[in-house]
Amino acid sequence: MNENREVDTVTSTITAPADPGVxxxxxxxxxxxxxxxxxxxxxxxxxxxxxGIDLTIRRGEFVCLLGASGCGKSTLLSLIAGLEKPSxxxxxxxxPGAALMFQESALFPWLTARxxxxxxxxxxxxxxxxxxxRADELLALVRLSGAGDKxxxxxxxxxxxxxxxxxxxxxxxxxxxMDEPFAALDAITRDLLHDELERIWxxxxxxxxxxxxNVREAVRLGERVLLMSSRPGRIVREWRVDVTGERxxxxxxxxxxxxxxxxxxxxxxxxxxx
Amino acid sequence: xxxxxxxxxEPSGPADxxxxxxxxxxxxxxxxxxxxxxxxxxxxxxxxxxxxALTVLLAIWQVVTLxxxxxxxxxxGPSDVAAAFGQLWQRGDVQxxxxxxxxxxxxGFVVAVLIATPVGLxxxxxxxxxxAIGPLITGLxxxxxxxxxxxxxxxxxxxxxxxxxxxxxxAVPSIINGLxxxxxxxxxxxxxxxxVLGAGRLQMIRWVILPAALPxxxxxxxxxxxxxxxxxxxxxxxxxxGTIGFGLGSLLQQGRELQLMSTVIVAILLILVVGILVELAxxxxxxxxxxxxxxxxxxxxx
Lengths: 274, 302
Prior knowledge:
The complex is a heterodimer.
Chain A: E1 10-14, H1 21-28, E2 31-40, E3 50-58, E4 62-66, H2 73-81, E5 88-93, E6 98-101, H3 113-123, H4 128-141, H5 157-170, E7 175-179, H6 187-204, E8 207-212, H7 215-221, E9 224-229, E10 234-241, H8 252-270
Parallel strand pairs in A: 1-10, 4-8, 4-9, 6-7, 7-8
Antiparallel strand pairs in A: 2-3, 2-5, 9-10
Chain B: H1 15-28, H2 39-67, H3 78-91, H4 93-125, H5 127-142, H6 148-156, H7 160-184, H8 188-196, H9 201-238, H10 248-257, H11 261-293, H12 298-301
Helix pairs in contact in B: 3-11, 4-5, 4-7, 4-9, 4-10, 5-7, 6-7, 7-9, 8-9, 9-10, 9-11, 10-11
C-alpha cells in the first residue's frame, strides 16, 4: 500500500548535545541478542505473525519495541525468551537466556514479597544460605526494603511490579525482557517507575528489551525505539534517542521525536482501516 | 536509610523521587482494618446465632413430644434422649464408640490422602493417565460407597479391612478430583512464570503447581473427609460382629435391634456432632488461613 510495507529499516537520529558518545559506545559493545530472518506462524496454514525480523541488540542497550496491538511484539519477546520457537530464522541470546517480566506482575499469591524473590533465587540455583540476604538486597534495589514480609494482595500495583522486577533481576541474566510491564498502572506511578527502571538499568548494566504501545514511554526509556507494523509484524523504522539524564521527558528534542513517532504509528494503524 | 546493602549499591537518585515513591506506597497500601473486633466478641457472635437456632429446635421437638403425636418409644423427647445419653456415657459406650469410629475415620482418611495425592498428580499431569482413568474416577465418585459393603464383606469378612476398604472407595475419588480440578484451575500465567524462572518438571510441581492448586486440593480433602465419615458409618451399620469393633454405626444398629429409639437418636446426634467438630477444628481454620494469606478472605467482603 505504501512505502512502509518495505522491510528495510530507516534510521533517523536525534543528535542531542547531552552525550554523543553513546552511539559510538553502543556500536562497540558485544552482541546480547541477535535475531536473524525470523518469521513466526502458529499454525502451518495460519497467518504470518512475524515476518523477516532482523535485529541486533548490544550488551547494556535499552531498546523499546513499539507497535499497535496485535503487531506481534509479545510474540517476538516470547521467541527471544525461548518460550516459543521461530518458524524460520535464528535467535541467539547471550548466556543461558533471558529474564522476562510480564504485564501483570504474576507474583505468586501464596508467598510474601521476599518469598517470591527467594523462589526465583532458589530456581536459579542460589544456595540456601545466601537467598534471604540476596532477596533483601534486591528488594532494597527496588526500594521495597520494608515490604519483604507483605503478602502480594497487600501491595499496590506499582509495588507489585517492583517486586516482579526484583524477581526478574534475581535470575541474574544479562538480558531482561519486559512485556508492557507498566501498562496497567496509573500515570503518576508509571512516571515514577520509569525513573526507577532507568536508575536500575544504570546500576545493574542489564540489556533491556522493553515492549510498549505507548510512544511517550518508549521515547522516555529507550536508547533505540523500533516501530513494528502489524499483520504481519515487521520492524519498519528505527530511531535513536541520544538524550540522556534526568527529566529527559521534558527535553524539546524528545517531544519532537514523540510527535514524529506517533505520526508513523498512526499511519501504521490507518493502513488497517480498509 | 538502610546501610547494609552490599553487592547492590544504595539506590541513588533525587530525594524527591524517593519521597514521592514512599508517599505513593503508603497511600496505595491497604491500611490495617481499624481495630478488629475482640476475639471473645467475635466468638460469641459466631456462637450466639447457632445456639439460638438449636434452642428453638429443641423446644419445638419437646413441644411435639409433649403433645403426644406419637408414643414415647417411637418419638422420645429431648429429655429422654439426654437420659439415654447419660446412661450410655456412664457405661462407657459413648466414649468407646466415638474413639473407635474416629480412629478408623482418621486412619482411613490419612491412607486415602496418601493414595489419592500421587494418583491425582498423575491424572492431572500425564495426558494418557487422564484419558485412561479420569472418567472412571469421576464415575466412582457418583457410586455411593455403601454399594461396596456387600462385596467387601465377601472379600474380607467381618474385619477392619472391610471398613477401611469402604472408606477408601468413598474418599479416594473425591480427593483425586479435588486435586485434579485444583491443578486444572492454576492460571497458565503462573506456569509461564515458573518456566521463565527456570523451574524443572519436579520443581514446577513442588513450587508452582501444588501451592497454586492448594485451594482445590483442600476442598477435595474436605469432601474426602465427609465421604470417609459417611462410608465408615455405612460400613459399621451393615457389618456388625466378627472382629469389627464397636463404633458409632454399631451403636446405631444396636439401638435399632433393641428397639431403643433414644439410643438411635443419641447415635445419630453423635455422628453429626463429631462430623461438625472435625470440620470446625480442622478444615475451617485451614481454609481461613489459606484464603487470608492469598487475600481471598471472606471477612473483607463483608
